[in-house]
Amino acid sequence: xxxxxxxxxxxxxxxxxxxxxxxxxxxxxxxxxxxxxxxxxxxxxxxxxxxxxxxxxxxxxxxxxxxxxxxxxxxxxxxxxxxxxxxxxxxxxxxxxxxxxxxxxxxxxxxxxxxxxxxxxxxxxxxxxxxxxxxxxxxxxxxxxxxxxxxxxxxxxxxxxxxxxxxxxxxxxxxxxxxxxxxxxxxxxxxxxxxxxxxxxxxxxxxxxxxxxxxxxxxxxxxxxxxxxxxxxxxxxxxxxxxxxxxxxxxxxxxxxxxxxxxxxxxxxxxxxxxxxxxxxxxxxxxxxxxxxxxxxxxxxxxxxxxxxxxxxxxxxxxxxxxxxxxxxxxxxxxxxxxxxxxxxxxxxxxxxxxxxxxxxxxxxxxxxxxxxxxxxxxxxxxxxxxxxxxxxxxxxxxxxxxxxxxxxxxxxxxxxxxxxxxxxxxxxxxxxxxxxxxxxxxxxxxxxxxxxxxxxxxxxxxxxxxxxxxxxxxxxxxxxxxxxxxxxxxxxx
Length: 494
Hints:
Membrane topology: Multi-pass membrane protein
GO molecular function: kinase activity
InterPro entries: Bact_2-comp_sensor_kinase (IPR050640), HATPase_C_sf (IPR036890), Sig_transdc_His_kin_internal (IPR010559)
Transmembrane segments: 14-37, 261-283
Largest sheet: 5 strands, antiparallel
Radius of gyration: 64 Å
Order of helices and strands: HHHEEHHEEEEEEEEHHHHHEHEEHEE
Distance between the termini: 54 Å
Subcellular location: Cell membrane
């Protein structure tokens, strides 16, 4: 399993949470931009569109209703039938026109298509009378009774342009006695960031506040969708259809400033985010190094096992101080148990060594004394030698001072022990010691080898005619020695 460092985890966490915070800020910023766009662009655009559509629809409906009423007015019909009442007819028509929100000029024709009343200035009547388009309107009115349509050609001079016309034939007792026309002027308001257009179902412009996107044929060419692009200009579009005659009301709102706000805002957010991440990347290691310095010192102390190191309390956190105190407490407790166990083991080892030292085989001593008794009569000199060796054995066995002795000293004891045993058993017992001279000074536990040799003799001497005990000592490495005791007794396998 891969090992991790707390610094790396904290650094990754800092960067991860920084990215999350930046993402949240960016998300909130985008939401705010959307709300701003909705409040400052979409809502005003839709409001103006609805307002214009309502005014157009209401204005058109007023002219339709008014025209239907006027062609039945007795004053007007009497005037067209040849009676007097021209002034009253003009007053009625002027009053109606002036009451409407949508500006218009009226023209009243008699049966011979002559202008008998109009709101246009003097001198326009002749131009109107000579217009072919007027004759077309009269023909359509004779056929349909009442018509309304977009004017697709100019019927007067440039200063008296009309966009839409309402025409109705005035019926009399013997047929049509005249014609009444209302010419609506292009009257949409012009604003700084709103472009208004009113078109028919075929995108022919009726009213407009700006010539943007208008063709030479009077059509409005705009892209589909809510967003319109034209060169370097960008607009938000709202389109509403008026139920009567499928009149279209289009509102365009400039979003150039909003695009700049969006672009530079996002650019600022991206740059700020990168700077923030860079600052976190650079500053976090320094902060962690300073903040985790006591923790690092604690880790170093534990890893190097430098338990004597002490912290200055004013430079560390309470948490680290608590860990340090708990750790040192456990270390001291463990060290106390180790020392206590070591003391117990040492006492146990000394006790075993002393027990081993005190465990001198009394049968061996009795047998040696018996041999000395007979040797004193037979060979006093040999008996004297046996006494000396027995004394040395007793002295070495009774010395409770050291628990470890040089190998050379313990081998001297074994030589005396073998010598006494051989005096007892004669040719039935023999031994050999093989050891490298440079290990003579190596220390071994006292009397560690003698019990092994004693057991070899004790359990095999009466079971064989000739017992050979071999002691070999060899060095395996600088700290390990191999000691072997072999015999050819019952357990020996050739």
